[in-house]
């Protein structure tokens, strides 16, 4: 894992030098497997972590930017919900979790989570303006209206390693669009195997 992490640090270093940067762990990253995932240790990013613009965050992650409330996950909550429920698309699953006011309705039964006894960290206390999930197969978005008239922008953020697609969001009107950087970094046939300590090996199935 050392070389890929070094390359990632170089890329993040260039971004953090000029822009605020939040990074969240995912299912194949060197972090705890159960939700909520703790922030990736800064020792993994010796270059980019020296900037005060760099912030290693938890998964799920909630933050506010210019008065806009964001709530997001790395995708495990809706991916697991899809295994045991039916919907037209991932946005429908996202909308359900918002209306249920719970980010991870399948935890702890089928989605690993830390055993809290005094509180539920997945309970949605306040409605966000933007709700996003990462590591999805494709980009998708929708605006939904809450029971009190509040508007929420739902965003499925695609796997950049497979699609080469990032998502741009306008904070003024919450309009968003996909931005393609061309050739994917990792072939779509590549598989990610989760091993102990949530370390990830990339296997190229195209050679088999």
Automatic annotation (TrEMBL):
This protein's GO CC annotations: delta DNA polymerase complex
Subcellular location: Nucleus
GO molecular function: DNA binding; DNA-directed DNA polymerase activity
InterPro entries: DNA_pol_a/d/e_bsu (IPR007185), DNA_pol_delta/II_ssu (IPR024826), PolD2_C (IPR041863)
GO biological process: mitotic DNA replication
EC numbers for this chain: 2.7.7.7
Coiled coil: none
Family: Belongs to the DNA polymerase delta/II small subunit family.
Name of protein: Putative DNA-directed DNA polymerase
Taxonomic source organism: Medicago truncatula (Barrel medic)
């Amino acid at each position: 894992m050392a070389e890929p992490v070094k390359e990632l640090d170089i890329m993040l270093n260039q971004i953090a030098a000029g822009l605020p940067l939040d990074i969240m762990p995912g299912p194949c990253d060197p972090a705890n497997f159960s939700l909520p995932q703790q922030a990736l240790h800064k020792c993994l990013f010796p270059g980019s972590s020296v900037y005060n613009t760099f912030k290693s965050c938890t998964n799920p992650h909630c933050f506010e930017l210019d008065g806009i409330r964001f709530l997001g996950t790395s995708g495990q909550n809706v991916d697991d919900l899809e295994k045991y429920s039916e919907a037209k698309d991932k946005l429908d699953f996202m909308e359900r979790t918002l209306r249920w006011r719970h980010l991870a309705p399948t935890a702890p039964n089928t989605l690993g989570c830390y055993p809290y006894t005094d509180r539920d960290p997945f309970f949605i206390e306040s409605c966000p303006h933007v709700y996003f999930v990462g590591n999805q197969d494709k980009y998708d978005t929708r605006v939904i209206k809450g029971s009190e008239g509040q508007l929420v922008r739902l965003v499925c953020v695609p796997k950049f390693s497979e699609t080469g697609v990032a998502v741009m969001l306008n904070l003024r009107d919450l309009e968003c669009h996909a931005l393609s950087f061309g050739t994917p970094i990792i072939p779509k046939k590549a598989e990610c195997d989760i091993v102990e300590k949530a370390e990830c090996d990339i296997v190229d199935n195209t050679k088999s």
